[in-house]
């Protein structure tokens, strides 16, 4: 967690660079201490994401491939799409992704959270989720939910997510 | 469960009536055996619902009141809105409601399921949920989810919903 703290307490004033303006969406820039002086980690809500690049990211964590036509539709109809990028000079690499469905009023559900394994265990997944939560909260969404695989329950717990509060159970439908 | 079977195995051919055409949405008509010969139970996906009538229904099950402005927004931005009506001659009464958020591609989450307590324990909630599931499935949504209060977990289980499949946990975010 030392890295995490360093990441966010370091100087974040140097926000405007030529790389950042390549994004159409709102961009939160973190200090470049993540890797080297020339490297920056950037979050974006721009949903104009290269689907092949996203598929490559999902391949890295072993997800089953999904039809890109449907992935495109899901991104279009998500309330929030968050991507995380490593920017090195003029190059940028997609290293994280998450999206949320919502009724735009009360509830949001976060889906498809993925971080490039080569960038895991540095607090970046946590940073991306905090960014996601902050975006949902600023849209006045009070109920943020998700369905967590067993191995990431503790990760989400540390972010303030609770399992089965007041006995509420997450349920999935399967045909009889 | 006897009533339920009767409801669905009885003659459902008499579909077109003047009451049904009052709905703009798609309507599934069940046989009038629910109460009397002149009574019919109708499902609709029309989202043009009187918000005061919906509030009255939610009052009946003791839900905390919510700003109608936000309820309106949530209905507008839901992927699917299902209402259940009792139709007696020219009168119709809202007796059930459910809605779902979705990415229009993979996932849907069902929220705000309510049935008028005076109409409960007759299989109508089950019928409304089956209608909801059918609508989501016909839209090619493969993953139907919900968050169930403890007292309705068995109700959803009987409809084919599973709690925590493969250890997946429903989680809710709360501020630190």
TrEMBL record, chains A, B:
Enzyme class, spelled out:
transferase
Which controlled-vocabulary keywords does the entry list?
Acyltransferase, Transferase
Give one GO term, molecular function aspect. Answer: N-acetyltransferase activity
Recorded E.C. number(s)?
2.3.1.-
Task: Tell me which InterPro entries the record gives.
Answer: Acyl_CoA_acyltransferase, GNAT_dom, NSI-like
This entry carries the following GO cellular component terms, namely: cytoplasm
Q: Which Pfam families match?
A: Acetyltransf_1
User: Where in this chain does the record put each N-acetyltransferase domain?
Assistant: 47-176
Protein known as:
Uncharacterized N-acetyltransferase ycf52-like
Record the organism: Hyella patelloides LEGE 07179
